[in-house]
Amino acid sequence: HDSFAYLNGELCIEGLSVDEIADKVPTPFYCYSASTIRNAYTLLSDRLRPTGASICFAVKANSNISVLRLLSELESGMDIVSGGELERALAAGVPPSKIVFSGVGKTRAEITRALGVGIHQINVESRAELDVIRDVARIMNCRAPIVFRVNPDVDAQTHAKISTGKKGDKFGIAIEEIRELYAKAAESPELDLQGLAVHIGSQLLNLSPYRTAYVRLASLVKKLRSDGLPVRRLDLGGGLGIRYDFGVGPNVSEYAGIIQDTVTSLGCELTVEPGRWLVGPAGMLVTEVLYLKETGDTVTAIVDAAMNDLMRPSLYGAIHPVLPLQSSDDRAQCAYQIVGPVCETSDVFGSYGDLPPLHSGTRVAFGCAGAYGASMASSYNSRDLIAEVLVDGGRFRVIRRRQTIDDLLPLEKPTPWSTINSC
Ligand code: LLP
Questions:
Q1: What CATH number does domain 63-274 carry, 3.20.20.10, 1.10.260.40, 3.30.43.10, 3.10.180.10?
Q2: What is the DSSP string of 46-58?
Q3: What was the ipTM of the complex prediction?
Q4: What residues bear N6-(pyridoxal phosphate)lysine in this entry (predicted)?
């Protein structure tokens, strides 16, 4: 990624020294490169053009409003999974006609709001949810644009915690149940039945599960059409993986080829929902070494970022690369275990063998942290949610200020006691 480079020995994002940004914005903070996001979006949309598929960014990967606005300005739609994500997309100026709503547990209030703003599509994940959508549409006197999310029973060959398309996973409706359900839904005046969706999992590095899933989807479309049912749209899900070691990830031309081979000829309106691939490589988590200590045979560096800021290592065993902010010529090749201050044994970023000597006050960055970093952060241990910074065109700005305890304490002012009158 040419937006990240060592210039005169300093790690720079789009030509700006990360260390100098950290002189102005206290660590830890997330830092994103706008041009890296734009380049990724442009590359993917170029490769997808022959397939006719359009992109709905999976907001959960990075839900900062400035990031959403940046993608929206490139004509991206949005894939949301909650009322909160809907409000973020709307705040970023995304037209509701470009928003699709996924997720297994949409509440009546969320469905009402989505239909109220004129959402493009709701991806239905169960019969019970379908009943609620129908009911809400009837009360609102509108037609709900829906697709059914199919569980195609495909092994995405990814981490067990982020695989979603196997039989028994909580996602989607079993493929063998769709035909009957689709026919029934087609008769409801409250439902504007548009088609089908699949999403088989996240962080796919091997593309062949997509082919399997899309082939199953295409054969289902043919069956539905032979039943005389219309299928106009297919939502092909997200999941394109990235390499966390800066290696070469999945080839998006090959991904587009799979779409072309399997579903393009059906003549449906196609969408994909990538999250990680668009924003993951564009972000880093900048942190500072607080202390060094010897733990057994290893030297442990305790940094000011922790598992609550970046959950992926402790939750999935993910390893994010460490980037020293200064390149050292005499690559001293020191080994460190890097950990955060949170009181959990799993608050470990990893063990790294090839770092320059670290000292108290040395800053480092964890790379590939633009996706599922800030958006998954919590304030565990009463640590403030950290700032997010965007670099664009030789400038930077804070796009989310760091939370302070004064933001949080007022939420915990108790209400007056209430009683329940029992008989
Ligand atoms: N569409 C749906 C319906 C999804 O559930 C997801 C992700 C996506 C699209 C986007 O997937 P992506 O292109 O980003 O792989 N927290 C985990 C990832 C969880 C993904 C959940 N669903 C991680 O940090 O690896």
A1: 3.20.20.10
A2: HHHGGGTEEEEEE
A3: 0.99
A4: 60
344-373 mean pLDDT: 96
pLDDT digits (tens, 9 = 90+) for 141-156: 999 999 999 999 998 8
CA nearest ligand 1 atom 12, residue? 239
CA distance 113 to 87: 10
Residues with Cβ within 8 Å of 126's Cβ and at least 6 positions away in sequence, in order, are 104, 173
Q: Residue type at 29?
A: F
Ligand 1 mean position, distance from CA 201 (Å): 7
Nearest CA residue ID for atom 23, ligand 1: 372
Active-site choice (12, 31, 268, 343): 343
Residue 56 is among the residues annotated as catalytic for this protein:
no
Angstrom distance (rounded) from CA 186 to CA 40: 38
Largest CA distance in the chain: 79
Nearest partner of 156 among 53, 241, 217, judged by Cα = 241
Query: Which residues surround ligand 1 with Cβ inside 6 Å?
Result: 58, 61, 79, 102, 162, 199, 202-203, 237-240, 273-277, 312, 316, 372, 376
pLDDT for 120 equals 98
User: Got the DSSP string for 71-114?
Assistant: HHHTT-EEEE-SHHHHHHHHHTT--GGGEEE--TT--HHHHHHH
Statement: 4-31+280-410 belongs to CATH 2.40.50.140: no
Closest ligand 1 atom, CA of 280? 14
Q: Where are the domains of the chain?
A: 4-31+280-410, 63-274
